[in-house]
Design goal:
By secondary structure, this protein is an alpha+beta fold. The protein folds into three domains: 56 residues, no CATH class; 100 residues, Alpha-Beta Complex (Lambda Exonuclease, Chain A), CATH 3.90.320; 30 residues, no CATH class. The protein contains seven helices and five strands; from the N terminus they run H-H-H-E-E-E-H-H-E-E-H-H. Strands 1-2-3-4-5 form a five-stranded mixed β-sheet, covered by helices on one side. Strand 4 and strand 5 form a beta hairpin. The longest helix is centred in the C-terminal third of the chain and has 24 residues. The chain is globular and about 60 Å long. The protein starts with 9 loop residues before the first helix and ends with a helix.
């Protein structure tokens, strides 16, 4: 998107992919993954496939970006809410569209509303920062070429402040009491502290002494 509109072609994006690979092949962030040579090749091939999938979803030459990886923030009661918007664009009639790229699989239809929660917060930030509500919110799932869109209402955008402040108060209360209620999810399968979690019959008080020994310094 940093190139002139006429130069935003798949060939140009492919060349940028190769340039990025040359820059990052010896980068600590990549080396720290501990990938084998085969896994590294697979990593870059997967990245290139995502780039090519993107071009099947839209023509970037028709996009008028207002900002890319745009950092915006606004006060919300007692705290400041910050976000990084992947892409903010301006339509021909002056409207704003917020687009977020996703590299994972797109959700089932029953899950699409939940996936828009983050985007609704971006919509609130956009309204507070620019004084204009976005006309559309878009999640682009480049792995399977699916785009999920929503047109937020002013009521939905305004509700984000009430909802987020309630979450903030709950977090502040937990920080004061030291009690954080667990909630089971698919991510539990990756949690190293599962054995001490009350959701799985464990005792969190024992984790203070046992976890450092069992995990050996792992977080």
């Amino acid at each position: 998107m940093g190139l002139p509109a006429s130069e935003r072609t798949e060939d140009a994006a492919t060349e940028l992919h190769h340039t990025t690979r040359n820059e990052y092949d010896e980068h600590p962030d990549l080396l720290s993954l501990g990938l084998t040579e085969h896994e590294t090749e697979k990593f870059w091939a997967d990245a290139l496939s995502l780039v090519r999938n993107y071009f099947s979803m839209e023509d970037p030459r028709e996009i008028s970006p207002e900002g890319i990886e745009l950092r915006i923030e606004a006060r919300m009661g007692d705290f400041t809410l910050r976000g990084i918007v992947d892409r903010l664009e301006r339509t021909s009639d002056g409207g704003l569209i917020i687009t977020d790229y996703k590299t994972g699989r797109s959700p089932r239809d029953s899950q699409t509303k939940d996936r828009m929660t983050q985007m609704m917060l971006y919509a609130w930030l956009c309204r507070e920062h620019f004084g204009q509500s976005p006309a559309s919110l878009r999640l682009m799932y480049v792995r399977d070429g699916r785009t999920i869109s929503a047109e937020p209402t002013e009521q939905q955008i305004s509700f984000q402040e009430k909802r987020t402040q309630a979450i903030w108060k709950a977090i502040a209360s937990s920080c004061t009491s030291g009690r954080f209620s667990p909630q089971k999810s698919a991510l539990c399968n990756f949690c190293a502290y599962q054995r001490w979690c009350p959701e799985f019959g464990g005792d969190p008080e024992q984790a203070v002494h046992e976890a450092p020994v069992v995990l050996g310094g792992r977080s």
